[in-house]
Amino acid sequence: MVRTGLRGYVHSHESSHASRGWRRPTATAVRRPSGELGGGFLGVDEQAGDAYTEVFPGIVTIARSSRAFLRRNIAYLVSEAGIRQFLDVGTGLPTAQNTHEVAQGLAPEARIVYVDNDPMVLAHARALLYSTEEGATAYTDANVTDPDRILEVAAETLDFGRPTALILSNILGHVADYDQARSIVTRLMGALPSSSYLSINDGSRGIDPVFEQAQDAYNNSGAVPYNLRSIDEVTTFFDGLELVEPGVVSVTKWRPEPGSGVPEVIAEHGGLARKP
User: What is the separation, in whole angstroms, between the first and last Cα of the chain?
Assistant: First the structure.
């Protein structure tokens, strides 16, 4: 989960298999957590979301913390790094404070391309996500495993001669093979110029055994799987880039809002890095 997604990438599929803790594992991973973030659930998504929350209530904290991390990343990119272009792969259903809302709220001229391959997500995105007059927001139907297609279509809206932020928020966990996931990151970042940025956050192993058990049970239920990764594996996605302080950390500890108290460490790690 975690975006098992907060932003899953594959289409929903039916399964007759059952696993301990899951009542009906037929949800689309990309849609379910919009409810956990305050959006709407759709049918089986609500059932799967309820089942997951019963097994591991902490998933709600992870979902909200993941969204807050992304919001702080975007604010940094716009206000401190001067970024005005965003390629957001695996957007999921619209929720509160989406990438374009945060970016264009700070810089109306910002341009954003969302990528997803779930027809329901695309239908809602077209209906609910609007751009400022000064900027642009576009949506494309493509799979994270096809980076060349993503780059081809995104180039219709973004100028890849200018620094761009690549956002991969809880999407790489849907690529089971770690080497393939790394190659996707390498291909996408390779097309972006110097001073571009990479933002990644994903569910992590080694922090919360209860979460790991819940996620493993979900994956074994026949639902769209999401693969948790070690902190070292998440960190390696940033090889060759310059990590922004404090590096790869629990998302709650990445530049928390002043006065927010001491953040707890959760099983969701991420970072932001600049391409030299």
Answer: 32
